């Protein structure tokens, strides 16, 4: 049975992922990261109390989907509520690198 990721487990995962970031990605990460906080995304995140949001870049949030065990990026229209469910199984470094690239082209 699926169990939600604890904040402590997530923070340890983030520490390891930070080591894998190249310098430009790490600089961007340091600008957009926030302390992990649960945001709502119904119905998928309801059982676990939401998903952990770890970064904000404009109207995008980076969150950990602990059902699929990967980091994803979604827009949000209301603070505290993720708009789109994604089931990528990306590591944080990859997700932040893609967020950085996306923010440079828009």
Tags for this model:
four-stranded antiparallel sheet, 35% helix, alpha+beta, single chain, 4 strands, globular, 106 residues
Secondary-structure class = alpha+beta
**Domains, number:** 1
Strand order of the largest sheet: 1-2-3-4
Assembly annotation? single chain
Percentage of residues in strands = 15-25%
User: So what's the overall shape?
Assistant: globular
How many strands, what sense, and barrel or not for the largest sheet?
A: 4 strands, antiparallel
Could you tell me the mean pLDDT?
A: 91
Number of E strands: 4
Span from first to last CA?
40 Å
Can you walk me through this structure?
- The protein starts with 6 loop residues before the first helix and ends with a helix.
- It is globular.
- The protein has one domain (7-105).
- The chain is 35% helix and 25% strand.
- It has helices at 7-19, 23-32, 92-105, and strands at residues 33-39, 51-57, 60-65, 70-75.
- The chain is built from three helices and four strands; from the N terminus they run H-H-E-E-E-E-H.
- The mean pLDDT is 91.
- Helix 2 (23-32) crosses helix 3 (92-105).
- A four-stranded antiparallel sheet has the order 1-2-3-4.
- It is an alpha+beta fold and 106 residues long.
Concise structural overview:
With 106 residues, the chain is an alpha+beta fold.
Q: SSE layout and pairings?
A:
Elements: H1 7-19, H2 23-32, E1 33-39, E2 51-57, E3 60-65, E4 70-75, H3 92-105
Antiparallel strand pairs: 1-2, 2-3, 3-4
Helix pairs in contact: 2-3
